[in-house]
């Protein structure tokens, strides 16, 4: 049994009941997301909430079309097949009552300033920005949202795969915020299954190193 039951309630949910999510609950989840920590307190996140089923379905179609166009770029049949096989997973949100897109905004790091000054090499720059704290802020907000959703009896699925259709999605929605880009999304709704489970986790001994 988990020492932290509220964490164990979160599962990746991909099937939902045909049941709307009250706006008040969505607002509560967004408030929970904004309580996440962020580097320099930038809070460089912006949430786009879609509850129109036709729009959600159309976004899924845009992802499917982009998947097909990307797959067509490959001449290797096996590599083409790998991309095509991801289409079903990347569009699992199509029947969700709510879709939440999380956009990431600007975040200037030490590496950015040094590159602009022209005093570091490309290799050094990439090493400095590799941790990508700006995106880590978005990840923290998404985790808060997922945990809060589970606590209220909802489910979601943290997704980044469909972002290859980010430009098409943003254009379709008519959403534009200077310096922001689509970093992740999650469907949201009441889980269709009463019994939820998650894949087994690696033991701490396999993923941690203690240095004394």
UniProtKB/TrEMBL annotation:
Note the SUPFAM superfamilies from the entry.
Answer: FMN-dependent nitroreductase-like
Q: Where is the Nitroreductase domain?
A: 8-188
Secretion signal: which residues? none
Pfam families given for it?
Nitroreductase
The terms under GO molecular function for this entry are: oxidoreductase activity
The name this protein carries in UniProt is Nitroreductase
Q: Which organism is it from?
A: Acetonema longum DSM 6540
């Amino acid at each position: 049994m988990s020492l932290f039951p509220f964490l164990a309630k979160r599962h990746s949910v991909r099937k939902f009941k045909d049941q709307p999510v009250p706006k008040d609950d969505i607002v509560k989840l967004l408030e929970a997301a904004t309580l996440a920590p962020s580097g320099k307190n930038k809070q460089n996140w912006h949430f786009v909430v879609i509850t129109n089923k036709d729009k959600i379905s159309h976004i899924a179609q845009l992802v499917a079309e982009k998947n097909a166009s990307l797959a067509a770029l490959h001449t290797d049949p096996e590599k083409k097949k790998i991309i095509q096989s991801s289409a079903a997973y990347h569009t699992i949100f199509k029947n969700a009552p709510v879709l939440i897109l999380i956009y990431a905004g600007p975040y200037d790091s030490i590496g950015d300033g040094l590159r602009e000054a022209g005093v570091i090499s490309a290799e050094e720059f990439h090493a400095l920005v590799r941790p990508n704290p700006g995106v880590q802020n978005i990840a923290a907000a998404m985790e808060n949202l997922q945990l809060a959703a589970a606590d209220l009896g909802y489910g979601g699925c943290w997704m980044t795969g469909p972002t290859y259709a980010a430009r098409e999605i943003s254009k379709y929605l008519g959403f534009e915020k200077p310096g922001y880009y689509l970093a992740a999304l999650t469907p949201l709704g009441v889980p269709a299954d009463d019994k939820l489970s998650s894949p087994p986790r690696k033991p701490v001994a396999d993923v941690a190193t203690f240095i004394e």
